[in-house]
Design goal:
With 200 residues, this protein is α/β, with parallel strands linked by helices. The chain has two domains: 37 residues; 150 residues, Rossmann fold (3-Layer(aba) Sandwich). 40% of the residues lie in helices and 18% in strands. It is elongated. The chain starts with a helix and ends in a 14-residue tail after the last strand.
Length: 200
């Protein structure tokens, strides 16, 4: 094999690798763009009312900003027919925000039977400190308690936690058993610190 042929072959391999790299980036970008609907991070409050109307929910969402014990304002969205109904607290995973539960809050059957509140965990959604998530499960549980104290100070509440919301509500139950009626863990990671991180 001649030197020029070998050089051409090496050049072709480099070009092919670069094209594959660019194609891979394009495919990854396309997948992220398509999946972005699954990871809506912050739905503005005005969009909630519009979504409720589109889903036939006659109730209007109530937006709360409640200070936790550090003074950080915790954002939450609530919907209720009556204050006498049991309260169900919805806690999202990571990444995410309260809008992960928008379809539940807009469900007319659910809102006739329970009060619902979806919380933006510290560092997510419209809770103060967006982009700076709170790592302590104890502090996150205390943030949930601040909202519970505002909406149901003398009631036990049900908590639903998805993904990392699961350990948050488990910690809530440990720290505040007198306020906990029960837990629903949905695809929860019980101890995030011990989980192996995948290579991707």
């Amino acid at each position: 094999m001649s030197t020029s042929h070998r050089s051409l072959r090496v050049t072709f391999k480099r070009l092919f690798r670069r094209l594959m790299f660019v194609a891979s980036l394009f495919i990854i970008g396309w997948i992220i763009a398509v999946q972005a609907g699954c990871f809506t991070m912050r739905t503005p409050d005005r969009e909630w009312s519009k979504a409720f109307q589109e889903k036939g929910q006659p109730l209007q969402p109530v937006f709360l900003d409640v200070p936790d014990r550090t003074g950080r304002m915790i954002h939450a969205v609530s919907v209720s027919v009556a204050d006498s109904l049991p309260l169900v607290v919805l806690v999202h995973g990571s990444p995410g925000s309260a809008d992960a539960f928008l379809s539940f809050l807009a469900d007319t059957f659910l809102t006739k039977t329970v009060r619902l509140v979806a919380i933006d965990r510290p560092g997510f959604g419209y809770t103060q400190g967006f982009g700076k998530p709170e790592r302590s499960l104890e502090m996150q549980a205390a943030s949930v308690q601040a909202v519970v104290n505002q909406l149901a100070p003398n009631q036990k509440v049900w908590l639903v936690g998805h993904s990392l919301g699961g350990p948050v509500i488990a910690r809530f139950a440990m720290d505040f058993p007198e306020q906990t009626a029960g837990l629903v863990l949905v695809a929860a990671s019980i101890d995030p610190a011990l989980e192996e991180h995948p290579w991707w």
